[in-house]
Amino acid sequence: MWYPEPIQELIQELNKLPGVGPKTAQRLAFFLLNAPAGEAEQLAEAILTARRRIRYCSQCFNFTDADPCAICQNPARDPSWIMVVEHPKDVVAMEKMREFKGRYHVLHGAISPMEGVGPDDLKVKELIDRLRLVTPREIVLATSSSLEGEATALFLARLLKPMGYKVTRIARGLPMGGDLDYTDEMTLAKAFEGRQDV
C-alpha cells in the first residue's frame, strides 16, 4: 500500500464512480485533500443531502424531492400523453427540447439479457398499473437507440399495443448506441417530431 489507509480508502471509493479509473480517482483524492476544508465538507454535505432528500416520484418514478414531482403536479401537462424513458437523466434531456407537454414514466434501465436485466427489473409493472388509472391517448417510447433500448421498446410495444393503446417510437434521428442526455436539443426535437407507430 503506497498511501496511508484513509487516502487509499478515499481513492477506492472514488474509483467506484462511473468513468473514474484509478488514476482519475487518485487525482480527485489529492484535489480534495488539498482543497480548503470547507469545500470538501460542502461536497460531502451535498452528497448526503441528496441521498436523504431525493426519492422516486410515486407516479412517474423520476427523481424528486417532493412527491409527486413538479412535472406530475403541473396541471398544464397532459396526463394522457406519456413518454417512457430509461433513466431520470433522459427526462432532463427531453425537457430541454421544450416540445413534449405530457408526462413521463422512468423505467430505471433497459432490458439487457447479457447483464441479467429483464422486464421484472424495470418499472414495467408500475407502468401497466398507471395506464389502468389514466387512459392514455399516446404512449411515446423514447428509449435509447442502443441494442438494449431497442429491445426494451420492442418489448413494450408488443405488450401495450394488444391492450389497445396507441404506441409510438421516437424517430431514428438519434445515433445508434447514443444516449439521450448526450444528444443536442435540435436532434431530439427532430426525432420527437418524426415519431412513428410501432
Number of helices: 8
Named CATH topology of the largest domain: Dna Topoisomerase Vi A Subunit, Chain: A, domain 2
* CATH class categorisation of the largest domain: Alpha Beta
Alpha-beta classification: alpha/beta
What is the CATH architecture assignment of the largest domain?
A: 3-Layer(aba) Sandwich
CA distance, first residue to last residue: 56 Å
N-to-C series of helices and strands = HHHEEHEHEHEHEHE
**Largest β sheet strand count, sense and barrel closure:** 5 strands, mixed
Beta-strand content bin: 5-15%
Tally of extended strands? 7
Overall geometry comes to elongated
Number of domains: 2
Helical residues, percent: 40-55%
Unreliable stretches: none
Report the C-alpha radius of gyration, rounded.
Answer: 20 Å
Strand order of the largest sheet: 4-3-5-6-7
**How confident overall, as mean pLDDT?**
92
Key structural traits:
Dna Topoisomerase Vi A Subunit, Chain: A, domain 2; Helicase, Ruva Protein, domain 3; 198 residues; 13% strand; 8 helices; 7 strands; single chain; 2 domains; five-stranded mixed sheet; alpha/beta
Q: How does this structure look, described?
A:
- The chain has eight helices and seven strands, in the order αααββαβαβαβαβαβ.
- The mean pLDDT is 92.
- The radius of gyration is 20 Å and the shape is elongated.
- The chain has two domains: 5-53, Helicase, Ruva Protein, domain 3 (Orthogonal Bundle), CATH 1.10.8; 74-197, Dna Topoisomerase Vi A Subunit, Chain: A, domain 2.
- Strand 3 (78-85), helix 5 (88-97) and strand 4 (102-106) form a beta-alpha-beta unit.
- With 198 residues, the chain is of the alpha/beta class.
